Structures are given as structure tokens and as C-alpha cells.
Amino acid sequence: MVDLSVNLGDIRLDNPVIPASGTCGFGLELAEWYDINMLGAISLKGTTRDPRFGNALPRIAECPSGLINSVGLENPGIDKLLSEKIPALRAIYHKPIIANISGFSVEDFAFCAEKAESCPDIDILEVNISCPNVHGGGMALGTDPEVAAAVTRAVKQVSSKPVFVKLTPNVTDIVTIARACEAAGADGLTVINTLLGMRIDIRTRKPVVAAGTGGFSGPAIFPIAVRAVYQVAHACRIPVMGCGGISTAEEVIEMLMAGAAAVQVGSASLVNPLACKEIIEQLPVVMERLGLKDLKQLKLN
Amino acid sequence: MATERTFILTAIEPVAAATWRLQLSGDTSGLRCAGQFVMVSVPEFYLRRPVSVCDCEPGLLTLIVKVMGEGTAALCALRPGREISLLCGLGNGFDLSACPKGKEAMIIGGGVGVAPLLLLCKQLREADRHVTAVLGFNTKEDIFLEKELEAAGADVIVATADGSAGCQGFVTDAIRMCVLKSDYFYACGPRPMLKALCTQLRQDGEVSTEERMGCGAGICYGCTCQTTSGPKRTCKEGPVFKKEELVW
Ligand SMILES: Cc1cc2nc3c(=O)[nH]c(=O)nc-3n(C[C@H](O)[C@H](O)[C@H](O)COP(=O)(O)OP(=O)(O)OC[C@H]3O[C@@H](n4cnc5c(N)ncnc54)[C@H](O)[C@@H]3O)c2cc1C
Ligand SMILES: Cc1cc2nc3c(=O)[nH]c(=O)nc-3n(C[C@H](O)[C@H](O)[C@H](O)COP(=O)(O)O)c2cc1C
Ligand code: FES
What we know:
The complex is a heterodimer. Chain A is an alpha/beta fold. Chain A contains 9 helices and 16 strands. Chain B is an alpha/beta fold. Chain B folds into 2 domains: 3-90, Elongation Factor Tu (Ef-tu), domain 3; 96-204, Rossmann fold (3-Layer(aba) Sandwich). The interface between A and B is medium-sized, with 33 and 26 residues.
């Protein structure tokens, strides 16, 4: 028997696989496809202070080995998250819940974090300072180490929950931002969010997504994510959730070897809603093949 | 219940210009009603493609696909024997009970939007509704499903934009010219056609809409449209919406 459990800071996960924010709705959307209690944890759709409709359609553009999305943080707002979405999820799901919050200013993040504090069902706060799909905020907050640190500090001040800051790869040096967040008190980091991308329809000479640009994700970004996780995990002491392009059990193990404590699987669930389930079922098989007994502290030789 | 299933392509044949009928065998238990769609995995492409259920009986699924871009071209180039992964039973589908028993239903399709009308027609006939089908195409070479709908018991009227077959004009012209009456309408086709129907026809009705999709399964919120009753996912709460729900 192999041991799939991992430790994410002080939280023990039964396995390292976590559906990434924005690719599993508020949990129930995925629960229609399989019993989500088999997951390590779940990261809910990004939530803001006020409800948002999101960007105009189309919001999706296909790419080789990936997609661009410009959903633009469509969500019902933090109040509805706490009063409706999380209770509905808790009724059928007993594993850790990661609430993903987003905003346009330091105050927005503090506001959401303070509200989330009252909800015992939230086990981890994931602070998304890396959304490329909203103007004046989102990713802009995650590209400057001082602003990233300010957001982290503001959230930590009002929250007693473990705070993971989610970083954007759209920076010259991700390690600078990671270190700034660690110094500001972050309990962990999620690495990475989507890359800023664009597609043009050559027949209409217009961008494919109405917003013009969007976040690029999927298998195409896996090597970038592995590199970013490797750099950050070796520069910081806090745990890292590795994210970007994962769609197989082998890639989960590769991401753990790069230094991640757990992993998030995003786009794979859009192409195959059963992706996380199949990856978890495949993990022991791949571990046996590699002669791995457990997934903790997988290191590079 | 939506499910992922592997089907086998048993036959593929042209039915109109650049339009193919795909016959697939596999577990159809996840398919509930007309107007639902499947997400088809296409070799070499990352995202699946949404395709309406054209016809379905236990173990056998029929799709009609028009080549619009690279993905549909690759799909229509597949040869029999090929395995294809489908997400089945997606979307809400048409509401058969919205047209009361013994009443007249008009089913209207434009271009490849005619595809879901066959199963709809069969289910309406089974439920004892009289069915008139109005099919709009650009030109004669585009026409498909005319015979099949007749065989399924519908009175079929064809309109072509260039007048090369049937009435000349759009489906709205055909409905006016032939003074077609009905108690309720069901429609699928390009957005301008749906808008014309919803704003011009006085009777109640519902239409199947199209949006670019990420997952097709209600997970990514890539397809949310604004409706009179708030934001709704085209792939989940749709693709069929009541006439009064849509914002044009
Ligand atoms: C609910 C629904 C049912 C449909 N039923 C049918 C059907 O029965 N038969 C049929 O031939 N076509 C149907 N379509 C349209 C079909 O999905 C598109 O023509 C197809 O996705 C185009 O793919 P492509 O790779 O050839 O085109 P490309 O333009 O190269 O595609 C690029 C991307 O855009 C998406 N896309 C492009 N056009 C559309 C469109 N009109 N609607 C949604 N996504 C689009 C593609 O899926 C792909 O992700 C349906 C669409 C929807 C939403
Ligand atoms: C449709 C879609 C919506 C997303 N929404 C969010 C979000 O609300 N908050 C967030 O932090 N990340 C969001 N992401 C980013 C993912 O969580 C993930 O970081 C990214 O997609 C890279 O992983 P992947 O390649 O496995 O998809 C979204 C991604 C996609 C594809
Ligand atoms: S396409 Fe993903 S929610 Fe509709």
C-alpha cells in the first residue's frame, strides 16, 4: 500500500490533488460528476466583495494544448459565498475548503478576508492577486512586490486562517514577489495563475475573446509552472501549491518533485470533468511503478 | 445525469454541402431529451466541440455536423471504427410539456440548427402533438433532414434565402407567406433568426442558443449569458431558453 497523504503546512490532505479555483465552480458543479470527497481539498471559484457578472462573451478561446479564458471573476459576491455556496457544499463534502478571494484594492481583500473569518467551514484562504481578467486590480496587485506584501499583510491582520497567496507568472522575477509575500506573513503560496494571452480570429480580424486578452492555461503552460514552483519552493520556506497544466498523475509527481507540497488541477477538469478523480485513481499505480511509498518530501536528486 | 462515455463511429456520410451525418454506437442512457447536446472530443484539439443530439435510440446516437472550422473539419474526416469520447446528456433540452396535448407545435430550424429538430419532432409526435416544421437554408445544396422530418410525421416547409428550393426568403417569410398557425414554437438556428422569431411571433415559444464553450458541463462559467431572470450558463440552465427570458 502506498501513502497518498501530504501536509500543507499544518493541514493534512488525504492526497495532493486539489481542483483549482475557477475550474470546479463552488464544488457542487463538480459533484454532479463524481464523489468529490475523494479530493485532497477544493479551491472555490474566485469571489469578490460585490457580485460580478464578469466579462462579455465570448470568454473562451481555444489554443494548442490549452485555452484562454476571460471569465472575469463572475461570482455572486462574498456574502452569498458564505450564506449559500459554502453551506450547500459543506452539506455533501467533508474535506478542506479553500476560499479564493479577489479584489481591486488592498481594502477589498481585507474586507473579504474579514467576512471569511466568520465562516468556520473555510479551512484556507487563497488570495488571488494574479487574475489577468480584470482591470485595475487583479493581476496589477501581484506584479509589484510592495503591493503584494501590502495585500498579504492586510489579509493576515484580519484573518486567523492559513493564507495562501496566489502568484502570477506575468512578472520578470516571481521569486521577488514570493519572498515579499512570505516576509509579509503569508502561510503559503499558490504558483501559478494563468499567463496573459491573446488570440485573433483572422477572418474577422478581431480578438477571439470579447475582452481582447485573457488568461492562458492548460498543458502548454506546465513547463513554465514547474519552473516557477521550483524557483519559489527553493527560495521560500512556506509550502507551495503547484498549479498549471497538470493533467496526469505523472505530472502531479513531477510538480511535487519541483518542490510543491500539493497540487492544483485546473483546465484538465474543463476537458474532462472526471480529471481529478482519474488522476487520484492513477496516482498509486504510478507510485508503484516508480517505487515511491509516499508523496511527502519528494526531492530532486 | 451527465456522463463521459466512449462511442464508436459506425457510419459517416454527407447529407448536404459540407454537412455530415455521424452515427455512433455506445451507452446512450445519459441522454434525456431533445435539445440536449454532447461535447465531442476531437483528436488533436484541446477543447471539446458542442454538438446537438439529432436523433437517439437506445445504443445509437446520430449527430449532424457542419464543417465550420478546423475542429469540425477534423471531426468530419474521422473514419468508421474510430472511438470518440463524448460528454453526454448536457443542457436542459426542449420542454415538451410547454406545448399542451392536442395542440399544434411549430418547430423551426435555420442551417445546421435544423439538427436537433428530428428527435424533437419524434418526441412531440409520440406525445400526440401536431407538428409543422419550418426549415431555413441559404441554398438548395444545404438542405438536410427534410425527408426524415416528413417520415417522422411533420408537415415540412422549406425556405431558401436564394429561392433555389421551397419558398424564397427566411423562415419568418415562409411562416408569413404560408400563414402558418401554431400554439407554441421551438426554434434553433443563428441568433438573428432567433431574434426575429422571438420578436415577431405572437405565440409563446422557446429557442436553443449557441455560445462558445469551455467545458459545456456547467463548470467554467465561460458561457454565461444575461437573461431576464439573471445570469445563466448557456450549457447548463440552457441552451434552451423561453422566448421571454432572452435579452436581445
Ligand atoms: C449547444 C450547441 C449545439 C450545437 N450543435 C451543433 C450541431 O448539432 N451541429 C453542428 O454542426 N454544430 C453545432 N454547434 C456549433 C459547433 O459547436 C461549432 O460549429 C464548432 O464548435 C466549431 O468548431 P471548429 O473547430 O470547426 O471552429 P473554430 O472556429 O475553429 O473553433 C474554435 C473554437 O470556437 C468554438 N466555436 C466556434 N464556433 C462556435 C459556435 N458556433 N458555437 C459554439 N462554439 C463555437 C469551438 O468549439 C472551438 O472551441 C453547436 C453549438 C452549441 C453551442
Ligand atoms: C475558466 C477559468 C477560470 C479561472 N478562474 C480563476 C479564479 O477565479 N481565481 C483564481 O485564482 N484562478 C482562476 N483560474 C486560474 C486557475 O485556477 C489556474 O491557476 C490556472 O488555470 C492554471 O492551471 P491549469 O493550467 O491547470 O488550468 C481560472 C482558470 C480558468 C481556466
Ligand atoms: S461552458 Fe463551461 S460553464 Fe458553460
